[in-house]
Structure formats: structure tokens, C-alpha cells
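Shipment paperwork, digital attachment
Item: protein structure file
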Amino acid sequence: MVLKHKSGDSVRSLVGTLGVGLLLCLWMTPSLIQGASTKDDYPVRPIRLISPFSPGGGNDTISRTIAIEISKSLDNSVIVENKPGANTVIGMDLLANAAPDGYTLIMTSSSLAINATLNPRLPYDSINSFSPISVVASSPLIIAVNPKSPIKSVTDLISMAKARPGKLMYPSAGIGNVTHLGGELFCQKAGIDMLHVPYKGAAPGITDVISGELSLVFGTSGSVMPHINSGRLRAIAVTGHMRSSVLPDLPTASESGLPGYEVSTWYGILAPAKTPRPVILKAG
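Attachment content:
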């Protein structure tokens, strides 16, 4: 399904998301993992870590990396389960209804804040249904194209989109995902029209950019960097307020043709509400 972007709504939603995201980042304070004694009997069986996207994307990559570290720390198996759909709502609902015993966790992202802003009928309370464990990482997006594409810069992208309104297509990991709203904000600031194609995760859409079926991607570093390193994608800009240490020679979108454009995402681990604090502390 192809969804045409609605720039005004998306920008207002993104602004609202920034406010909610700030509250959630304060709520998910890293101090939660410090101090206090923990239960000696946790864990005694494998822990399930939900990644609410399809395999191969940024959330999935971070989930699997963190799962290894938690396994080492707790001397216990941590199994990643992909539960994609509805921009993480399916996975978040599973967590909200799981037993609050520390054996079901989720790797959430800025989608938690975005959904709270965009969707008034979520099957869970975005704050009160969960117990925060820790913020894990934050990252800008990377704008990338097929290496055969004539688009070599943000200026090229804007010029081509203006010459071919509505013809350039970009994927996302779902409607309302930061990879969707990042593209919407780009369109709004550049005064262009591109088509958004939503998927249940980043990997399928990136595959279609690599094949040439889609024009470009606003991807998380975890999802696009392997393809940039292999030469299957070419990065043209990073969406942060400063250049990335991973790609120090890559300009920001703001400095390369779109002043004031900035988008980033974050990742964090949650447990169900009412999970005992000692378990939260040990899981962190």
C-alpha cells in the first residue's frame, strides 16, 4: 500500500512527539539501574525480549546486541522475539498484558511516544502500562539511495523531487514511525511531494531501495549501515544536528541543502507495569 504524505499533520505530530519523547526519556531515567538489592532467584528461566519490528532493522539489531549483554550479565538466556505490526502497537500490547515478573521485556523506541501522540485509541496506557528499565541508545537517521541513483546530495534529491512531484518513493517501518515522519518533515521543509510506502519493519523497505523499486530511505543507522558498508546503498546525508562519528565525512541534511531539518530516534527497554523494583534493577 502506498500512502501519500500529509505534511501539515505530520509536522504537528512530530512536534507533539518531541514533547512526549522528552517526558519519556526523563521517565526512563538510567538511575533506575543503580542501587538497591535484587532478588536472588531472578532469573531462573529464559527471558523474552520483544522486538516490535520485523527482523533485520535497527530495533532488531539493537535488541539482539543487548540480549547478548543481558545474557552475560544475568548468566541466563535472553531470547529475542520479533512481533511486528502497527508501528510497535502489537508488541507493546503483548508486553502490557504479560505477567509482571521480568520474564517478558521489550525494546521500545521513539514509536512509543509517536503512537501516544497520533493514536487516541491505543489498547494500553503509554506510560502507566509499563515499568521503565533503561534508555539504551539514541541516533539520527541516515538518508540513503541506491548506488546507481543520480541523487548524490540533498540538493539533488530536492531538485529531482520538484521536477517529478509525487514520483519519488521512500519506505518506512510503519505508518507513524520515525522513518515515516522523518520523510514527511523533509517534504514539508523542502516544499516537495514524495510518496510514503509503509512496511512492518525497516528491512523489507530497504531491500526495495536496494533493488531500485523505491527511490530512497530515511533509515536508522542500525538498519542501513550494513548496506552502506557493503556498497548496496549510498548515504547522502545524516539527519542529526551534527555529523555522525560513524560517517564523519557525511554532511548533515541541514548543512547540505535543508537548513533547520533535524530528526533522531531513541531506544529503551520496558517491562510490564507492576514488575517488582528489585527485578527491574537486576534486569537493567
